[in-house]
Design a protein that fits this description.
heterodimer, A: alpha+beta, B: about 160 residues, alpha+beta, 4 helices
């Protein structure tokens, strides 16, 4: 992985553009199997409609996992020290998610090369579906 | 909430859980989320990178929760399942989580809050934490904190 160097990032910098393909019900079902979360709201159309939803919607943790892939794609999994997220709105089949990560803090905490990221996940209509914060450690310039 | 004083739930603990981090599960989880990092998918690549097993994505510890066999302390909250939402989730990574690890953790309710909902009625937030430690060394690997909320009853 080619993580950016600590010296090369500044507060306000943003990570590389990250956009998903349109999400499918199969994506949600695959995540259900991988995570073990078989809440029927995420795969059973009949159940979801009886509960008053237009269709099934994605697991919050599916969105969180995709978002973590954006962070890991920028800085490397091994450099992620924390990842915390807040679920704001539902994610539906055919939604296209974009992840924006912004450097919000640099070395405020007394630990080496720690950088805080503020992250927003938005859908194709520009609505925020999830916000997140992540602490990452970046390598020093050699 | 069926119980009188919800803050009494703070400190409520579940059974100790043992979690063997399986290689196939790490790969399946990584694939489900579209990770293409070879260290998550290919044992040779992981070993070449100095790891003892496949590297788990940052949110992988979620895949432990749904397979737990013990009593979850959250059950004591007696939430109405129709009004339950996942509000927040946090992971703190102490060292790389890799397949082959055997971890132990005890779920514990660490925070309970209530606030007035936008349309009246009380919303209840319950935060459950698990510190997963390596069984042999006792070293912490990943801590998870999950906040579940029960929305106010419909009027």
């Amino acid at each position: 992985m080619n993580a950016p160097c600590f010296e090369d990032v500044a507060i306000g910098d943003t990570g590389p553009a990250f956009t998903t393909k349109p999400l499918t019900r199969t994506d949600f079902v695959r995540y259900a199997g991988a995570s073990g979360d078989f809440n029927p709201m995420h795969h059973d159309e009949t159940f979801a409609q009886k509960a008053g939803r237009p269709t099934v919607f994605g697991h919050g943790m599916y969105t969180a996992g995709v978002c973590s892939r954006a962070v890991a794609g920028w800085v490397g999994i091994e450099n992620v020290r924390s990842f915390g997220c807040r679920f704001v709105a539902q994610v539906w089949p055919d939604d296209v998610l974009s992840v924006t990560q912004t450097v919000a803090e640099k070395d405020k905490i007394d630990a080496g090369n720690l950088v805080g990221l503020d992250i927003a996940v938005t859908n194709q209509n520009g609505e925020v579906v999830m916000t997140a914060k992540s602490q990452v450690v970046l390598p020093s310039r050699a | 909430m069926a119980i009188d004083n919800v803050t009494d739930l703070v400190g409520e603990r579940g059974d100790s859980e043992t979690w063997k981090v399986e290689e196939g599960k790490v790969r399946e989880f990584a694939v489900a989320l579209g990770f293409d990092d070879p260290r998550c998918l290919d044992l040779e690549a992981a070993r070449a990178a100095g790891l003892d097993g496949l590297l788990a994505p940052p949110t992988f510890a979620m895949a432990s929760t749904f397979w737990m066999r013990g009593t979850a302390p959250l059950r004591k909250a007696e939430f109405d399942r129709k009004r339950v939402l996942h509000g927040e989730q946090e992971f703190v990574c102490h060292k790389p989580l890799v397949s082959g690890m055997v971890l132990e953790g005890v779920p514990e309710i660490v925070d309970v809050r209530q606030k007035e909902g936008k349309r009246g009625g009380m919303m209840t937030f319950v935060t459950t934490e698990i510190v997963w430690r390596e069984k042999d060394s006792g070293d912490p690997v990943v801590s998870t904190s999950s906040t579940i909320l029960e929305t106010a009853p419909a009027k």
